[in-house]
Amino acid sequence: MDIIRDYQFVNEKDRGASAAIGNFDGVHLGHQHVIDLARSNAERLGAPLGVVTFEPHPRQYFAPKAPPFRLMSAEARANRLEKLGVDKLYELNFNASLSALTPEQFARDVLAGGLGLSHVVVGEDFRFGAGRAGSAADLARFGAEMGFGVTIAPLLKGKLGEVSSTAIRKALSEGRPRDAAAMLGHWHRIDGEVIRGDQRGRDLGFPTANMSIAGLHPPRFGVYVVEAEVLTGPFAGTYGGAASLGVRPTFGENLPNLESYLFDFKGDLYGAHLSVALIEYLRPEEAFDSLDDLIAQMHADCARAREILAAP
User: Fold this and answer.
1) Catalytic amino acids?
2) Is residue 171 part of a domain?
3) Could you read off the pLDDT of 173-229 as tens digits, one per residue?
4) Between the CA of residue 306 and those of 184, 196, 241, 303, what are the distances in Å?
5) What domain range includes position 38?
6) What is the pTM of this model?
């Protein structure tokens, strides 16, 4: 997959795609439906399949001090889109210049002129241009004038209601990772590099892979059943495990992070990139009166996690 970040300097080979447009935070089932419609048009036109998105997320740009809300980092989003078969990821730099474009300027200068898109697909609630002034209907009108096709996708509804990033955040905040997965179409994952922690887990007999959750929407703090995919290094592979997500209250107040204990694993993962899927919420965080009590609970957590991972 090719990643293009500047719409003003685009190689000819990267133009002409049929592209889905949006923020694609989480790449949930609604996003995947929009991408599939773009794929159908790409096949019809003999064009590459593209996705047009923005970095930073516009919400981040306009409210940089707001609490973290993203379901995935830009790297994790790119990895997921590549798995979906996207050929061209137009990850446009969202800045003062881009945010100031009127809807007509965005359609003309970015979509038609800059990227030379042959077809675009958006959700029916799509808004674009300065002040979010443009609607999906406006985009269809501009497309007819400027030479690119437009498909407007209806919002997707599932058994849990409308599929949206907001609904997925709510499920995760409430410790319902399976409901989040039902809307995502895949497990919710936290991706990142393994960082050096306090090494308490090693001293307790449970060495963990520590990862920052900075910048991400925090799921409910507690202990989870997880499946960890080691993406880089000599130990690449998939491992079941149990993980603690939160501030580790037994040891005072700490920055939130994710600490994953991988079953039947021996090796050094510092610096490796992991993708950790949250499978099931086991229990809330708690402060234990003694290390012996904590260790006993960790054994119980791991036993329960193994049972859940072994179930069909």
Assistant:
1) 259
2) no
3) 999 999 999 999 999 999 999 987 666 656 566 888 999 999 999 999 999 999 999
4) 24, 26, 7, 5
5) 2-158
6) 0.87
